[in-house]
Fold each of these.
Amino acid sequence: MAATRISSTVEPAWSRGTLIGIALIFLTLFLFVPLMAVFVEAFKKGWETYLAAVIEPDALSAIRLTLLIAAIAVPLNLVFGVAAAWTIAKFEFRGKNILLTLIDLPFSVSPVISGLIYVLLFGAQGWFGPWLQAHDIKILFAVPGMVLATIFVTFPFVARELIPLMQAQGSEEEEAALVLGASGWRTFWHVTLPNIKWGLLYGVILCNARAMGEFGAVSVVSGHIRGETNTIPLHVEILYNEYNFAAAFAVASLLAVLALVTLALKSFIEWRLQESGAHQPEGH
C-alpha cells in the first residue's frame, strides 16, 4: 500500500522532463538572454567606453543620489516594518485587518499613481503647495519628494516578511522572558531579534533592491533634473532616449549587478531560514 501511495504521487519521467524543459526555456528567453544582452551591449565598445560612461559626472551624481535615497528609505522602512509586524503578530486590537490592508496598499497601486499622490499633496496647486512655497520648502523635484515616494513603494517588504514569521513563532518566549523580569527592550534584543534576524535581513535586502531600482514613482516627483534629481534608472532612460545606447547599457549593468547580488543574498538567507527552522526543537 505504501509503495502504491508513493508511486501515485510521483510524476512520470517524461512529465517531469517536459515541465523542467518549459521552465528552462522560459528562464532562458525572459531572464538569461536579456541579462546577458545588458552586459554584451555595455561592453560592446570596449572597457574604456564602459568606464567613461560609469564615471561621467551625471552618472556619478545618479549613483550617489540612488545610494542616498536607499540609505534613508531602507532604515525607516526597517523601523516601521519591525514595529508593524510586532504589533500585528503579538497583539489583538481593533483595526488590525485595516492595518494589514494599508501595508499591502503599495502592492495594489501603480507606482506612477503613488507619485501623483505626492504631486497632489505637495505640488504648486496641491493641498500644501502654497504653504510650502510661502516658507521656501521644496518637496517635489527635490530629494525629499523622491525619498517619500521611495518609502511609499517599499514599506511593505520588511513588514510582510516578518508578520508570518512572528505569527508562526508565537509569543511564548517573550512572555517567559517578561515573567522572569526582563524589560520589554531587553526581551526584544535578546529574544525576539535573534529569532527574526534572517527574516529581517531578507526583507531589508528586498526593500533595498526595490528602493534602488524604483522608476515610476520617483520619475513623477523627480523633475528629471540632470545631475541633480536623476537616480540610476532615470539616468538610464535619458541616455537611451538620446540614443546613447553604450552608456545606457553600461549604467544599466550596475543595476543588473545589484540584482545578481540581491539574488545571491536572497538564496543564502532562504537557506539559513530553512536551516534555522530545521534545527528548531519540536514544539518550539
Amino acid sequence: MTAGTRSRRNELPYWLSAPGMLVVLALVALPLIVTLSLSFFAFLPGGGVGEQITFANYADIASDGYFHTIFARTFGMSVMVTLICIVLGVPEAYVLSRLSARWRAVSMVIVLGPLLISVVVRTLGWAILLGNEGVINKVLMATGVVSEPIKMMFTLGGVVMALVHVLVPFMVLAVWASLQKLDPAIEQAAQSLGAGLPTMLARIVFPQVIPGVLSGGLIVFALAASAFATPAIIGGRRLKVVPTSIYDEFLGNLNWPLGAALSVVLLVIVLMISIGVNRWVERRYKQVFQ
C-alpha cells in the first residue's frame, strides 16, 4: 500500500462526516453565534437595535432581582423534575430490563408513548386534568376527599408534574441502556452469598448504572431548564421561567438584545452545571471503585 493510498484512507472519515458537520454549523452553530453577537448590542426604543457594542444587557441581568428570581425558579424547577425522574425512572428501567422479550416490547411502547405525542397536546391534556373543573378535582370532590377545588393550574407543582410526564422516558431509556451492560450472573452470585434485594440493588446494581443515571439526569435537567410550552401553558403568565421570559423579550417587548442575552446566560449556566456535575460524579465514581 502506497503512502498516497494510506493518506486518502485516513482522510475518508473526514470527507464522510463533512456534510453532517456543515448541517450542524448551518443549523446549530451559526444561530448560536448570531444570538451571542446580538446580545452585545443596545436596545433602542421602538424595537430597534443599536450599533455600539455594550455589556448593558448582561449588567441588567446581573443586577435586576426580577431576573434572579426567574433564574432561581427555573433551575429549582429543573432540579425537582430531575430528582423525581430519577426516583421514577430507575426502578422502571430495572423492571423493564427484567421482563421477558414480549412484555418488554409492550412496556417500551408504553414508555415511549408520550414521546410520540406533541408536547403541546400532552400539556393541554394536563391542563384539562389539573384545572379547577378538571378531572382530578371533580373526582376528589365527588369522593369527598376535598370540599373545594385544589389549585393545581398556574402553580409550580403543576408545571413539575407535567414536565415529569414529558421527560421521564429519557431517564428510563438512559438507565435501561446501562442495565443492558450488567451481567445477570453478578446478581445471582450476590443472592447466592445471602444478599437481599435491597442490598443487591444498593451495592451492586445502582453503582453499575450511575453513568446512565448521570446521562439521563443531565438530559432531563437541560430539557426542563429550556422547556417553554409546558411552563407557558400550565404556569401561565404569572409563573415566569427563563424560556417564557426570553419569548416575552423577543416577541412582546421586541427587546431582541436582552432576549439574546438571557438565552446566552441560560445556555452557559446549563453547560456549567452539566459539566460540573459530570466531573464531580465521575470523580466520586472512580474513588468508589478504585
Amino acid sequence: MKVALITGVTGQDGSYLAELLLEKGYIVHGVKRRSSSFNTQRVDHIYQDPHVKNPRFKLHYGDLTDSLNITKIIKDTQPDEIYNLGAMSHVKVSFDMPEYVANVDGIGPLRILEAVRLLGLEKKTKIYQASTSELYGGMKNNKNENGFYDEKSAFYPRSPYGVAKIYGFWITKNYREAYDMFACNGILFNHESPRRGETFVTRKITRAVAQIALGQKDKFYLGNLDAKRDWGHAKDYVRMMWMILQADQPEDWVIATGISTSVREMVSMSFKEVGVELEFKGKGSNEKAFIKACHDKKYQLKIGKEVLSIDSNYYRPTEVDYLVGDPTKAKVKLGWKPEHNITSLVKEMIQSDLKSFKNN
C-alpha cells in the first residue's frame, strides 16, 4: 500500500488530492498548520479518529518554515510520494508579505528536498512541487507560436509570490539533476472549485452573485476586469498531479486548459447562472455593471441596479493581464484531459454558494 504525504492538505487542492489518493488505496498523511480555530473543514468528511486502528488518513501539525519539523514528519511517515501544495498563494497579499512568502514558497520546497536527501530517501520518495503560471508574468514575448505558455516558455515573475515560486521550481529541478531524485514541477494555471478560498477572485464573484441574487447583498467590488486567465477545475488538476508522479521519468509539466476567460466574462457567466443579464458601462476604474434583464423568476432584481464597481485598491503593483497555458505535453505523453469546462465550473460554484447562503 503506497504512502503519500501532502503539505497544504486543508486547502482546496490538498483536500481533493487526499480524496483521490484514498480512492486509489493510499495511506495519506496531511500536514496542517497549528491554529487556534478549526481550519479543517475541507477534509473533515475524510478525517478518521486517530484512535481508530490503522486509519488511512492522518493529520500532522507542521510548517514549511520549520526544517526540523518537516524532516521529522518525513522520517516518521516514510512516504512513497510527497505532494508539496503548501504555500502562501495569494498574489496580491504577497506584495504585503514578501519575506514570508519567500520563506514558505521558496525555501519551503528546499526544506522538503533536503530532508528527503539527508534521510536517504531519494531513491524511494517521489516529489511533486506545485509551481504556478505566475512564473511567466504575462509577458508577450515569451509565449509559444500558438500564443500560449508551455514548458519551454521563459519565466518573468511579476510578484513576490511568483519570484518565490521560481526559486521552488529551480531548486526542485536542481535536486533532480544533482541527486537523481524523482522530483517534478507542475506549473499549474488557475484552478477553482466550490472549495476555493473566499479571497480569490472567482470565489469572490460567485459568493457575491449568490448573495445579490438572494437579496443579501447590494453590490461588490473588483479590480482589473480585463485580466484574462486559464481557469480549470481543481479536481482535474490534482488528478494530473498524481499522473505526474506515475510517469516513467521525472519531468516538469504545464497543467492548463488552453482557454482564455476574462474577469469580466467570469462575472457575466456567474450572473447568467441565476438568470441575470448585465450591462457594463464606463472604462477603467470608472467601469460599473448594472442589471439589464432577469430571466429567472426565482431571482428578480431591479432593472438598472448597480451590482459591481471597481476598487483600485485591488489592482496589483505590477499587473499580469494574460495567462493561458498549453497542456499539449500532458495530453500527449500522459493522456490527461480535463473533465470539466469553464461553464460547468461556474455553474457548480454558483450552485454551491447559493445553497450555502440559503442555509445560512
Amino acid sequence: MYFLNVEKYILDIGYHIKYKNREEGIFVIENEADGVHNLIIGVATPVLIFEQYLFTLKEDNMEVFKALLMKNRDIIHGAFALTEDGQRVIFRYTLQIHRLDFNEFEAAINSLSLLLNEYSDQLITFSKT
C-alpha cells in the first residue's frame, strides 16, 4: 500500500522514476529541471527515507565539515550526512510513512531542490577540495 502511494506522489509532482523495486521498497527518481538526479527513496515501514548523493570527500576537511553543519541549521527538511564509510556526503531526510500525505512528500522534495539550487556552487567547491 505505502509503495503504491509513494509511487503516485512521485508521478504527481512530475518526477521521472528511473528505477523501482517493490520487494526492496526502493525508487530512484529524477527531475532535470529541479537539479535532482538519482534521488533514492526507500519505503522502509515505518519510515520513508530520502537520500541524495552529493559528492565524495577526497580527504577529511574540517572546514567542509563545519560549513555543512552550519548549513544544516538553515535546511528546513533533511540534513547533510556522511555515509557509513565517511567518504560520501549525502542529503538525507526521513518521514513517518503511516500518516504521510502529499504535502509532506512534496515539501521534502522541494527542500532538496531548493538546497541544490541555492547551495550548488558551494557543494561543487567542496567536491574539489
